[in-house]
Queue: 2 jobs
Job 1
Amino acid sequence: MKNIAILGFGTVGSGVAKVLTENRAEVAAGAGEEVCLKYIVDVRDFPDSPFAPLLVKDFALVEQDPEVSVVVETIGGCGVALDFTRRALKAGKHAVTSNKQLVAEHGVELLALAKGKGVNYFFEASVGGGIPLLRPLFNDLSANKILSMKGILNGTTNYILTAMDRSGMELEAALKEAQRLGYAELNPDSDLDGTDAVRKTCILADLAWGRELKPERVSVEGIRNVALKDIRNASAAGGSIKLLCRLLRGEDGLCYAWVAPHFVPAESMLSGVNEAFNALIITGNMVGDTMFYGAGAGSLPTASAVVGDVIDAVRHASSPRGIGWTGEDLPLGDPEELSSRWYIRNGDTWSLTDALPAAKVPAAEAKYRVLD
Ligand SMILES: NC(=O)c1ccc[n+]([C@@H]2O[C@H](COP(=O)([O-])OP(=O)(O)OC[C@H]3O[C@@H](n4cnc5c(N)ncnc54)[C@H](OP(=O)(O)O)[C@@H]3O)[C@@H](O)[C@H]2O)c1
């Protein structure tokens, strides 16, 4: 039997407790032994929760308990989450997280720490929530040179853009609806500004190309300037506006990484990805295009990926997987130099350009790269 602890009993952490409990038999079958939830660490009390007896406030209890083999960090951010993860790994415990900010900003350090201690550090849920993306990329596609990845990895903005299209709302109204339905947080900045999508883009690049892509190196444009008339024009032109994460490996050996709203033609497999769903197309030089689709967030979908990592950590407890990348900077080209067609808007005129680099696009009130 292996004991585990959850740090942070919020949306994801409470889902992890539920999956471990309701699917106890499946988890045990996958792990090859029972997986028992011993502690939940949170700053708040949850007196009405069936898990109340497991709640503690002091992480040191987990850190110092030799019976705890796996720690699940679902607090978020890079404050205590970083401190607790470092301490858990240093104490020789496997660590699993859904925290993309922590992995994107501190992955090199934490993976090296895990390697030095002979334990696993897994983060499948950090990109695409419940969709299996990172393990297929790292395992099943490892015979390939990864040529490109493109996808919708932020469910909040995808929900907002879909709502604008379907209900004819401007962005502010669609954001309010998303907040009311729980698809957007009260502070939606990291979603609207593309920061969340950038962190996921970095983790994909790190894993695919083995060197570090720091978030501040990714060029980013969020969705704040997407107007309802752009959505309407895109629809009339047979497509839609979607916030895409883009990664390309050029023949020059340089990688290109950016996040921006794009015009997605109806024939693209990404055009049918609506509401809060996520999808990613990974193109390898041998396999061609592969597409992954599903729930990119939410308590149980995200917990499904987290618990999958817990199972893998237990299975590989004595022979950790060598997942990782170096701290060397990934060589990057400037995506602005990549030519593509663009839809541009000036006043009420919406037109399509020839293939041009960004600097050659005529001045416009709004411009959207066409996904080709
Ligand atoms: N929600 C999703 O669908 C989703 C999907 C994929 C990935 N993620 C990622 O998963 C992580 C967790 O997200 P979430 O939505 O579950 O967040 P959340 O609902 O805010 O849960 C975080 C929990 O940690 C608690 N906490 C804060 N400081 C703590 C401390 N010092 N010690 C112990 N517990 C502490 C919080 O308490 P308070 O509420 O009192 O602060 C809260 O209960 C984030 O990195 C997020 O980006 C989330």
Job 2
Amino acid sequence: MVSSAQLDIPQAIICRYNKIAAAKTLDPVFSPSNGVDSKAFAHALAQPDDDSLGAPVGVYVHLPFCPVRCLDCDNNTSIAHDPAAIDRYLDNLEREVALTVDTTGSGRRLQQLHLGGGSPNYLSDRQLVRLMSILDRHFKIDADTETSLDANPNNASLSQLALLHGLGFRSISFSVHDLDPGVQLAIGRLNSLDKIRDVFDSAREVGFDTVSTDIVYGLPRQNARSIERTMRNLLDLSPSRISCFAFTRATNERTHQRAIDPKDMPSLADKMALFNSIVQGLSSDYVWIGLDSFAKPGDPLSEAQAQHRLRKNWLGYTQLPPSDLHGFGTNAISDLRGYCVQNHLQIGPWQSAVAQGQFPIRGGVKLSGKDRQRRDAITELMCNMELHDYAALFDNDDQQPSTWTDYARDGLLAITGERMTITTHGRYMLHEILNTSSPAHIF
Ligand code: SF4
């Protein structure tokens, strides 16, 4: 078995931070009890905002459909075998987009568009064309719009990828998780290396600029040898970017994970060592981006990080300037005009709100100016590993000073004068805590 000794992080700290990370959830942020509901959000959207009026925006569309459920899945998705269910979803998506632009004005330029899920490319060609025509009708998508989608390799084909490229997508991320057959069997997610290689080649052939992937660590049956094989195969594929996610078996929240045999799960120390193997395996060919992503040298993210202008929004690391973000579909997050809200998670409540002409919000928060400063400070720390003036972190919250002081006491942060930096140990231990989602996990 792998050992965490090479990292020299005390076992007690590994356990403590894994527990903190496992307990972190976005539920309190989007709880209906925060008082931000559909009406409050509609009111906020209707207020003129001089800063954002006419400025380009980001759009995220959630497409919660997959052919099968992977056992390690943490995403909000449903298993659909009836194309009519996806057609109905698109009907409601069209209503939701219209509801928003009726309030904010149509024709705003998109600086960023991302399709996530689920498996966005589980939609048929006809449905993908329809989806893009809905967005095209209401927003301005041009050659400078950063267009990306997540894709399930098992649903991808040369003709589908050519269609997606023709529809304007320039960046695609094939979700892989792990390339070892034993690990794939344990999570019920079978993607042969030949198939993955084929879809990577096809995406490049049709002209995608960025072909990326992900890797998940902490999966059942992962060990030092399996992760090394996966890393070798991954390097052969030469993805533009690799996002790295931690897996925690959470059987209460995600009952399908009960099918994973707990005896197959790596220990916490092994999990840490697996992450270390990924970092070491990628270090000669990739730049470590923020806390948990990797990009080829020369990639816009690598350059942005080198120039201290890397940012993070709900769609991930970005070199783009901050903008309003509209989220459409179940589970989608909107972050604009000081509000951060999430749509209903399930299709039923989402669709019935939209059918009644209401924003399908399950809950959210209104951020004060100080909250936003604090969020920006945490995000900057995550992106650039340092903060020149950490005072913003300690504003208006009694709990936070002790949290950051704890991190410093445990060697995860270094504080010199007004400057705070994330240490190497901190980069390993804090990414799950600060990054379950973004921006900055809303504290
Ligand atoms: S393909 Fe992705 S979203 Fe769909 S079930 Fe598997 S992990 Fe979840």
